[in-house]
Amino acid sequence: MHLYLIVPIALLLLEIPQSFAQAPKSGSPQQKSAPGSPQTAAPAPPAAADSEPQATTASFGDWLLRCQRTGTGSEARRTCELVQSVLVKGQQAPVAQFAFGRLAPTDPLHVTAAIPHNISFPSAVRVAIDEKDPQGLELPWVRCLPAACFATAVPKDDLLKRWRAQTAAGRLTFKDAAGRDVNLPVSFNGFAPGLDALAKEH
């Protein structure tokens, strides 16, 4: 399991802002050379500011394609994820978040769930179309950060194909600290075009 994927996913899911790189300061004014002394080359002008936005978002039904750019020049890289915030009636803040993403084009697509800390161990998160779905996906817990715990897995192509064609809501299930099953709704509205857009980012 590639645990390194959890960090960028956590940054995007929890909306931790990335600091903007400061523009390089211009060199100090060139001092006048004494007669007969060699001329000193003028300082190089500061590099032009990169006009590409640091973060972008695009909506696809109930899904949000969120991209974050880090680094500059040849070190610049762009990481994107397709995210859904899971809401419960009567609450404005999301109770969980569900995301698809990869670090590089050659990496497998991962699906990650971010759940509040009120969970049981050992256990796993399960995502399925309904309670009788035998082909659901289990996401083992891999890490807890101050704001949430994360479970991740690599979905198979046939499962993604079924989810692409799904129109009714699915469900995300986990066990709370008391060992009770908690069922949260997962919408597949916009999932297929959102996943296609995510693929184009790599």
Can you characterise this structure?
The chain is an alpha+beta fold and 202 residues long. It has one domain (3-12, 51-200): Immunoglobulin-like (Sandwich). Helices cover 13% and strands 33% of the residues. The chain is built from three helices and ten strands, in the order αββββββββαββα. The protein has helices at residues 6-13, 157-165, 191-200; strands at 55-60, 63-70, 77-86, 96-101, 110-115, 124-128, 137-144, 149-153, 170-175, 181-186. Strands 1-2-3-4-5-8-7-6-9-10 form a ten-stranded antiparallel β-sheet, sandwiched between helices. Strand 9 and strand 10 (181-186) form a beta hairpin. It is globular. The two termini are 21 Å apart.
Morphology: globular
Beta-strand content estimate: 25-35%
Number of domains: 1
> Would you tell me the overall average pLDDT?
76
Can you name the CATH architecture? Answer: Sandwich
Assign the structural class, choosing from mainly alpha, mainly beta, alpha/beta, alpha+beta, or little secondary structure.
alpha+beta
- What is the CA-CA span between the terminal residues? 21 Å
The top level CATH class name = Mainly Beta
The CATH topology label is Immunoglobulin-like
Low-confidence stretches: 1-41, 44-49
The number of helices is 3
Helix fraction bin: 10-25%
Please give the order of strands in the largest beta sheet. Answer: 1-2-3-4-5-8-7-6-9-10
Write down the secondary-structure element order. Answer: HEEEEEEEEHEEH
CATH superfamily: Invasion associated locus B (IalB) protein
